[in-house]
Amino acid sequence: MYIWKFWRDTRRGVFIYLGLLVVGAALWLGAMHRATHSRSIHVDPASVWMMEVGITFALAYLCALVMAFVTGNNNVGSDIGKGTGDFLLTRPRSRSYFVWTGWMAGIVELTALILATIAVVFGLGVLVTGAAWRHVPSPFHFAVGEGSQSGSLDVPLMFAMIMLTAAVIYGLTYFMSVLLRSGQRGVVWSIAVLFAYSIGSALLKQFAGVELPSLNFANPGANVSHAWYLTPNVQMIGWTLLSIAFPFAAQMSLDRADI
Amino acid sequence: MTEYAIQTEALAKLYAVTRAVDGLDLRVPRGSIYGFLGRNGAGKTTTIRMLMGLAAPTRGSATILGMRQPEDKLAILQRTGFVGEKKTLFDAMTGRDLAKFNRPFFPRWSDELMAKYSRQLEVPMDVEFKKLSLGNRTKLCLLMALAQGAELLILDEPTSGLDPVVMDALLKVLIEDYAGEGRTIFLSSHNLAEVEKVADWVGIIHNGKLLLEASLEDIRADYRRVTVAGNALPSERNEQIFSISGSGDSREYFVRNEAERFAAELRSQGATIVEISPLNLEQVFLQLVRKEEPCTSGNSGATPVAVSSSI
Prior knowledge:
heterodimer, A: mainly alpha, 72% helix, B: alpha+beta, six-stranded mixed β-sheet, five-stranded antiparallel β-sheet, 10 helices
């Protein structure tokens, strides 16, 4: 029933997002269509495929970040902040039930929205430019860069990393909202934490030569030269564990709290 | 089955410098309507929050329906209906939505009870909670608790802010319908008239301590004000005298029991008994909690001793 409540609370946002996605994608489709017809430049299939992947990745990444913050602020913490904690937490279920059910429901919704975004943007790209992957030798792996800066882009891994980025930010926002008992404050403090981390790590690198793990982990190819570079699979495991650590932390903070 | 619906032993909640609840020993008989009285900030809500598992006691224990809190918290919650101080439910849900949300949590949930009480209390079930008046919000909160089929209802200030008509309707449902079936109601309030109307047991809490626990029947039958004139009148409180007012040659003694014997003793010492009059709940309450300042010759305060009659 808590899942039903979660869906009830978030469904309006989901429908608005899907509506905007379809409208936005249709506008983009129109613009792309006009652009490709007005220029008669020959572009090789590999570049077209790179563009399709790149645009899909960029849009999905951006949307995933926004959705992670939005989805993460709806939870038992925001219910307590709205004054309904007395009611909710006197239903005969443990506090961890509300934390984990809410977190799971959010992850499922977030995943569905990201997949929908990828499907719509990518589908439209293919519709406009054609199925370029049929003409490239390796549609899922691209060599990028030159010399010591060279690396490889693993397309499925890139999209998996979008999901993980979203899951980590969602988890952070979720934890902050439970800790601070307010969805809005949860979002603000999550953004503040991410900013503080980015600025702090940049300052440390600049003045002390110390490198912290990069937040830009969604693009494994870009991290090759980083001091904390780990193989993509290890990174994925690490970020998965981090994303699961947040609901654990939320549960611990709620279990110990007086409502 | 224990004889008490709620029993606490030295229950305490301490905040940094405040003793919100300080060694509370409550005994709420099964089947009773128990009025938990106290001024604002006396510790009523904190006690209730500990009973419901919303706050952890600093020390002491609570047993509810024979089960220990927090070890048996989920079983307690399944059998206990609760209306909190805030009376806030989910803003965007109607009464029907709330029932749909609540139903799977409670094995004894009854749609028949919900329909019956919503008719009796005239609760609009198709209006979003945020659009309801305070009275209707309170009624809806109570309705959700009643439809659970709970054995025990814990209500924190259930009638605060309600107009007399709504209050009357609520109390009627509680007394005639719910409690009539032998279930227990524990309600906190500072509305003495309301409690005197519905309760059969009262507990009075002040500064986190239980000053009195007694049946209203005992209070009506035994508690007396003895007005006395004379010299060298006693000025100390004891087990029998719970409060003294007045000074010099004229005093009022508030006694728990055996007022006639007390009067006879004073008479034998040369005092004149002006009047022996019964006390109502409000007078007892005021005598107990009106002053916590040190006793003076003109104001001897209250004796914080809990009195419990046999059930």
